[in-house]
Amino acid sequence: MTPVALVTGGARGLGACIARHLASEGYRVAVADRDLAQAKATAQAIGPQAAGIALDVSSEDAMEEALDTVVRQFGLPWLLVNNAAIMKAEKVLDIGIDTFDAIMAVNLRGTFLGSQRFARRLRAANKGGRIVNIGSLAGENGGTATGAHYAASKGGVHTLTKVFARDLAPHGITVNAIAPGPLDLPSVAETIGEENARRAMASLPTGEPGRPETVARMVVELARPDAGAITGSIIDINSGLYMR
Ligand SMILES: NC(=O)c1ccc[n+]([C@@H]2O[C@H](COP(=O)([O-])OP(=O)(O)OC[C@H]3O[C@@H](n4cnc5c(N)ncnc54)[C@H](O)[C@@H]3O)[C@@H](O)[C@H]2O)c1
């Protein structure tokens, strides 16, 4: 049977790369994003095995509706990739509470909601499944000094990963996170500015940023049916910036 995957924030950037890669590996892919037009365009570029759907990951109702839509259209997913996130570079003293709440709502609450609502359906079906969360190097080492809200949200994602993994292990559901350092994507310069991005990339120990394709391939590996022993792991892809 063709496996089904749901990728949140799949309209652009890393999520789009993961969706493309999953499709090329034989998955039917739901490209879920709050930017429906872009999600549809991305899905169309992938082909008939992909569909763009509307989703705001911070909303309970939207999450349930998106899961209903995917189940109707493709069947129950085997894999959920919690990739949607927002980022902002601000000094701690400048962070407004609205921005703090908005980042937590998408990055942390969105990952919790997606994992919980998806896992409830997997449990009911009793066939196992896979959850891969996209965390961040910032969730481990605090990142730069300009993203306390973002770093804290990603630290939370890593912790959720471990607790969900422990709880769901007896049910054949694995939960892992990938913690990328700077990736070769436009969002880096959009968040911290061209000059800072250029400097950050130039100072990487390996001399090169992570490739979105490398992250996408890791998602596929973690999602393999025979990878049931990998759970609760935070996989680093960070150009040598941080070693546990
Ligand atoms: N770019 C990097 O260098 C980098 C490094 C480490 C981790 N990450 C992580 O990788 C993931 C993808 O990052 P990216 O660089 O592709 O970002 P991006 O901003 O290019 O893409 C994020 C996508 O998420 C969508 N989105 C935002 N809020 C949403 C919501 N409430 N509901 C549904 N969709 C929503 C956006 O519309 C967009 O399509 C994020 O989790 C990010 O934290 C990125």
UniProtKB/TrEMBL annotation:
Keyword Plastid assigned: no
GO biological process: fatty acid biosynthetic process
InterPro entries (alphabetical): KR_dom, NAD(P)-bd_dom_sf, Sc_DH/Rdtase_CS, SDR_fam
Record's keyword annotation contains DNA-binding: no
Key words of the record: Oxidoreductase
CDD domains, A to Z: SDR_c
Protein name per UniProt: SDR family oxidoreductase
Organism encoding this protein: Acetobacter vaccinii
